[in-house]
Every structure is written in structure tokens, then in C-alpha cells.
Amino acid sequence: MKKVKAIAATCASAMVLGMFSTQATAAADVAADKKFVSAKNTHFMRQGQTYYIVGANFWYGAYLGKPDAATERARLHKELDNLKAMGVNNLRVLAVSEKTEMTSAVKPATTQAPGQYDENLLLGLDYLLAEIAKRDMTVVLYLNNFWQWSGGMTQYMNWFEGSKALDPNVTGDYEDFMFQTARFYQNKDAQKEYQNTIKKIVTRVNTITGQAYSNDASILSWQLANEPRPGNSKATAQEKTIYTAWVNDTAKYIHGLDKNHMVSSGSEGLMGSANDQQLYLDAHKSPYIDYMTYHLWPKNWSWFDSKKPVETWDGAMVKCKDYLNSHIDFAKKLHKPIVLEEFGMDRDGATFDVKATTHVRDRFYTEVFSLLYRRAKAGDAIAGFNFWAWNGSGRAGHADYWWKTGDDFLGDPPQEEQGLYGVFDSDVTTILLIKETAGKMHALQK
Asked: Do residues 401 and 352 lie in contact, with contact meaning Cβ atoms separated by under 8 Å?
């Protein structure tokens, strides 16, 4: 009988210990989960607190991290330290580029040809992630590009259809470019290679930290692409259906590889959805898209003429505020967070000169920051912003302001004049505005 009691006691102890062990494991899992930024209702959460993005676009970060460019790594440290001092806690970065013959594209590229990758650039991404983690910042990594400046979807079509897409910077025909590029979504070979590249990046183990990307809490989300569009302004119902399915299926594929991180689309909002509200909502209803994105480009969209700032300001601001507010309301409707992950304005007089003043840009930033802060403070769905873009200590290398191989990397990509929208480290008034807004946004975290 004593033996039976002893066995029973031992079993009971084992059960209790097992229960405590299970509870401890569950608690550890919860603690681990809290390291990662997640979406809860209409906000981001991190380490048990609301998390607001005060971010910068820094697409070239991995290029500065390459091991064969010590001076670039020194610059990377400087840029990250300056951004951190400004209150920036998030960066939006290009994870992979494709080698292309198009003239307005960055060189070198991550993907030399299907299945062939430049390990130096991947090591650069490893280094960037390690340095971001040291500064307790987070990063959004986008895995493709609708535009030609990094090769992007167009280069996939060049590879798998044998086409030679014309550079729209040369032809000026963006409508045809968008129509041709959108074929990417339904080309089976292109999609297979795209998924192979996604897997290559998402399942990579960082050579510096030894940590799998999927376990790196400094990654806020994976993003399908920079500004994916269903086609041009005349996109058909069929093209829209194909696009929506691509968003859902690709996001699902990424979640299948990585259970820890969020996935976002990279959409511009209505302007990237053929001005079709239902298309924008349908693409973001997917359970595999964790939060919504939108961009704001009043000059690019012909709302504002920077050569006639006084005459066009008021009308542009009405449209900008309506665009900002309507997208925050869309997010409320879908009960998801939303990030304004691109917005910008050029320098006074529409010049690219680093010495030019930025009064109009500062006024634009003030309007954007004020609206976003007001709605965030009210508890609305806005989860933060990323300004476009950080030029930092980089400078244009030529009198015509166009980028050439070997020049400094700037936030203005090679398809644009160097100095068009980027914020330099000498733009003191703009930096002070960002820093002031960062303080206010961070104070909302609780």
C-alpha cells in the first residue's frame, strides 16, 4: 500500500512538475512573441506596449553593409546613429534587387540571374540587420519592386518572357510600362522564381548574429513589393482579380515560411489601386495581410506644382488631407493598423541642390505630422509613418544630379534626380520637425 501511495505521489509530483513545465514553456512562448511587433486590432504591439512607427525610407541600407566596402560600413553606422538620435525607430529597406539592362536602375543587384545571388549584398543585409538590432530599431523588408529602379517585376518578365521592357524614364510611357509589368502576377515561371527568392531571404540565417531571419525580432514585417499595382489606370476587372489573388497567395506563402513576422503589401493606397476603393479594400481583407499601407505624393500626382507653390498649395492640401483621412478610415473599416510609409516634397524652387532651402517641404511635413498625430492621439488606426527618404551624408555626384555606378547611394533612387525628395543630414529644420514629432508619437506608447 505504501508502495502504491509512493508511486501515486511520484506520479502526482510529475504531473505538477509537468504542469509547471508546460506553463513555463507557454510563458516563455508568450515572452518570445512579445519581442516581435504584432498587429492587435488597429494598432501595433511590441513588448506589451503600443508601438508607433516613426520611420524613414532607407532602401540602400544593405548596400552600405557590404563587407567589401569598409567606408560604406562606416557611413552606415553614422546614418543609423543619426536616425536613432532623431527618434526614428523603423526603416523601410529593399531586401533584394534584380540585375537589369535598364539605365535608371541600381547596380550591382542581389539577383544576377534566376537562382544566382550576390552573396556580398546578402552579407550586407546581414550586417544591416545586426546593426539595426543593436540600436533597438525595427525594419520593414520589401521583396520586390513594381518600378524599374531595382530591376523588379519588369526584370522577371525579361527573364521569363524574353522581353526587353523599355525603361519608362527613357520612353516616358508609364501607362504601357505598368500594363506590361503587371503580367508578372500571372506568369507561372516568374512566380515560381519570385517564391524561390522569397524563401532564400526569409529563411536565411544571419552570418553575423547566427540568428535565422525568421527569429529576428528587429524585423517588423515582410513586404510583398514596393508599390505593387494591378496594372495601369485602365486596369480591367480580370487584372484586378489576378492582382488581389496574388496579394493573398504571396502573403500566405510568406506566413507559411515564417510564423513570427507580419506581412504587408507595400500598396500606395487608392492611387496604386487604379483609384478603385473596393480593390484596395479587397486586397487588404486577406487574413494574411496584417496591416495596411499607403503613400502620399502630391507633386507626382499633379496635385501640387512646386514651381507655383502659392497658387497650388491650398488645393493640394485639401486633397492630401482627404487622402490621409480616408485611408485611416478604410483601416478602421477593416479593423487593421495602417502606416503612411512614403510621403515627400521637393526642395524650394524645384531644385535638387543640397544648399537649397526646404520651407515648402517643412510646411508639408508639418501638415502631415499634425494630422497623423491628432488621429493617433484619438486612438484611430494610424500606426505611424516613414518619410521618403533619408539621404543622410550622401551627395549627388554630378552636375545633372543623375546617379551613376560608384556614386553615393541616396534615398532618391536612380530613376530620380539625386536630391529630389531625400532629406540630407544638413536639412536642419526638417530634421528638427521629425525629431519633435517622434517625441510626441513615442509618448503615445503605453
From this structure: yes
Determine phi and psi for 56, rounding to 5 degrees: -130, 150
The residue among 261, 266, 256 whose CA lies nearest residue 213 is 261
Strand order across the 49-51 sheet? 38-40, 43-46, 49-51
CA–CA distance, 162 with 284 (Å, rounded to integer): 32
Say if residues 213 and 259 touch (Cβ distance below 8 Å): no
Fold of 40-442: TIM Barrel (3.20.20)
The amino acid occupying position 238 is Q
Q: Where are the domains of the chain?
A: 1-35, 40-442
The DSSP code for 212 is B
Largest separation between any pair of C-alpha atoms in the chain: 97
Q: Which residues pair with 56 in a beta bridge?
A: 91, 387
Element at 76 (helix H, strand E): helix 70-85
With H, G, I as helix, E, B as strand and everything else as coil, classify residue 251. Answer: helix
- Rounded Cα distance between 218 and 72, Å, is 22
Per-residue pLDDT of the chain (446 residues; tens, 9 = 90+): 333 333 333 333 333 334 333 333 333 343 346 799 999 999 999 999 999 999 999 999 999 999 987 889 999 999 999 999 999 999 999 999 999 999 899 999 999 999 999 999 999 999 999 999 999 999 999 999 999 999 999 999 999 998 666 789 888 899 999 999 999 999 999 999 999 999 999 999 999 999 999 999 999 999 999 999 999 999 999 999 999 999 999 999 999 999 999 999 999 999 999 999 999 999 999 999 999 999 999 999 999 999 999 999 999 999 999 999 999 999 999 999 999 999 999 999 999 999 999 999 999 999 999 999 999 999 999 999 999 999 999 999 999 999 999 999 999 999 999 999 999 999 999 999 999 999 999 999 98
Residue type (1 letter), 336: K
d(CA 186, CA 30): 39
Is-above-0.90 flag for pTM?
yes
